[in-house]
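Q: what sequence does this backbone want?
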């Protein structure tokens, strides 16, 4: 990131990031509506939590926790084996829904993808915000799962935006609003910046995403890799 991202225009590009909400357990809830709202996890066959529903997360269950520990925390926890064939089917259907709105879809993982909406306002006769909300709504309607979406002018910013308000959230960061949004965002929330890098940046006096974005591009290229450079 650098000063070139602070656009004078709201939408020099329009990049959408779609992120499934507790994707594996959401798929299970779509197939078994009686499970909706209950504390469920997948990953029972591995002995660790692969995915926890939001009801389970609210009770303190996190991904990667040993199953024995999870059951100790929540004795009523519903444990399911991971059904990756089914999750892959939901994934393909989700990406195909996105392609109804734009042919430029980049599958990033089983439960998330980017879509380049640039130039689609005229073709679809709708604003970028309306298009993004339409994608989110059609996924919910057709698949019975929720996704959180972020819309901005780069992939990094779109991904940051999609994490901002979960589940079923929508966050918009147009070009003219980037500086004000990043000013309140801890640098550790930026995609690709982990704990070690956050500590390193802290020693440089960099604590917000805005301060990081304003570092000279050459400094970022010398000290960081993608997606920091982006």
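A:
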């Amino acid at each position: 990131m650098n000063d070139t991202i602070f656009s004078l225009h709201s939408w020099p590009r329009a990049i959408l990031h779609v992120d499934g909400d507790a994707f594996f357990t959401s798929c299970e809830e779509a197939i078994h509506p009686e499970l909706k709202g209950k504390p469920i996890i997948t990953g029972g066959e591995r002995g660790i939590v692969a995915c926890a529903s939001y009801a389970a997360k609210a009770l303190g269950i996190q991904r990667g926790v040993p199953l024995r520990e999870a059951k100790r925390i929540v004795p009523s926890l519903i444990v399911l084996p991971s059904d990756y064939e089914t999750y892959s089917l939901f994934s393909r259907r989700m990406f195909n829904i996105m392609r109804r709105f734009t042919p430029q879809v980049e599958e990033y993982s089983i439960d998330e993808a980017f879509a380049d909406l640039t130039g689609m306002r005229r073709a679809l006769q709708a604003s970028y915000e309306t298009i993004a909300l339409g994608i989110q709504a059609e996924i919910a309607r057709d698949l019975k799962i929720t996704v959180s979406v972020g819309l901005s002018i780069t992939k990094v910013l779109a991904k940051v935006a999609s994490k901002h308000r979960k589940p079923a959230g929508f966050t918009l960061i147009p070009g003219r609003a980037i500086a004000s949004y990043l000013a309140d965002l801890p640098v550790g929330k930026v995609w690709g910046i982990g704990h070690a890098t956050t500590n390193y940046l802290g020693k440089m006096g960099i604590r917000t995403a805005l301060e990081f974005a304003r570092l000279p591009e050459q400094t970022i290229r010398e000290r960081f890799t993608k997606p920091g450079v982006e």
